[in-house]
Amino acid sequence: xxxxxxxxxxxSKLMLIVYRLFLKLAFAFLVLAGFVVYQExxxxxxxxxxxxxxxxxxxxxxxxxxxxxxxxxNKNKFEFVKKDPLKTQIVLMCRFIxxxxxxxAFIGGMYLSFIHWVGLIIALLGLGISELLFANKRLTSHLSxxxxxxxxxxxxxxxxxxxxxxxxxxxxxxxxxxxILLFLQEYFYHLxxxxxxxxxxxxxxxxxxxxxxxxxxxxxLYTILYVIVAVFAITNLYSIITSSSVATxxxxxxxxxxxxxxxxxxxxxxxxxxxxxxxPNYNLIADEKEFKNQIYKLNSDKVNNAYNYVVSTMNTKxxxxxxxxxxxxxxxxxxxxxxxxxxxxxxxxxxTALLHDCMEDVKDCxxxxxxNLTDDKIANSVALLTKKKGIDYxxxxxxxxxxxxxxxxxxxxxxxxxxxMHNISTxxxxxxxSAKERKREETKKYxxxxxxxxxxxxxxxxxxxxxxxxxxxxx
Length: 475
Known about the structure:
Structural class: mainly alpha
Oligomer: single chain
Mean pLDDT: 81
Shape: elongated
């Protein structure tokens, strides 16, 4: 059973990094514009204010464009974007309008704050509306992103203040506010994913360690940035930069620069899509009746018993569902279907595929249960596939021993390979990038050698095993 969940979203994909950066910069420049309004007592013609607002809108548009392209061209990402791109574009435009409305409310609130404290509330609500530029259904996720973006905005605000007044004690206050926001970011992120954490074999202390690690990393990063700002203020580098003709030209060309970056991303994603091998989809059975027609042809009571048992027990009514929300029994059905479509039709193999998770996950299912449904041979194969409680299979020696024991049994070997093929094929938007990467690396590390060993041992099944090997090598 695939129990991967989202501990921390992270990805090496260029598009993902860029669109998140654009989101942060759009929000941060908006906060900077608010700082300017507050500091300059509402001088809307202030060059810094104009630059901040312009940059905020440019980065907001760039974020939406890059976000759309990322979802459009990345496999296993938001299939509705590909099916109805016009609807998606309209939604993104509405989110940009909300960002503009929120920005106006924020700037207006900062203006009113000189007259009444209600202005600060309006400004905060405006920032909240602007946050809707980010797409997520969960409030805690919005709060996490809000704190992350606001931390960058606070940094930008202090950069502006230090450029005007030089280095002073307020740097400690701004730095402390930034650290608090980073802490809240990690806290809300934890709340967003706590339902997924519960599916991981990770205790609370380990989860705390993970969150603390990311907080410390981000805190150190922002601390370094504040130190750099302090150095700029002390050495008066701001005046040198602002008086430079190069800097002036750069600021004037910023819209063009961002446009070029967006076009480059479009070309990158298009090229990436055309040159990347698409993984085969092994999640083919969406209706159990379709599969039942296939196993009817086998004329096997053992397979029929296995099918009826898994469908009646591993369903959502009994609390068995996949990360995608469907009945869990679709996983063993598709695992068996992978074998059938590759010419593996022996009743012991198909029955083992259907029952391979039962002893591990069904409370009242034991060796005797499987034996009574089928026979000793199938029960033994399922027992080999069943991971023992109390053993950490993340440890190399334990995982290798587990796979080596399976390798001694043909049925268990073929089912384990088909099981992994289906799990990899179904890692879609419900899995974080980190969870996907862990599964890919685990597959390369253990299953490619496992399939190679199986090729040497079970030569009659070479057609299926070579198909599996090719699939795993594409990861």
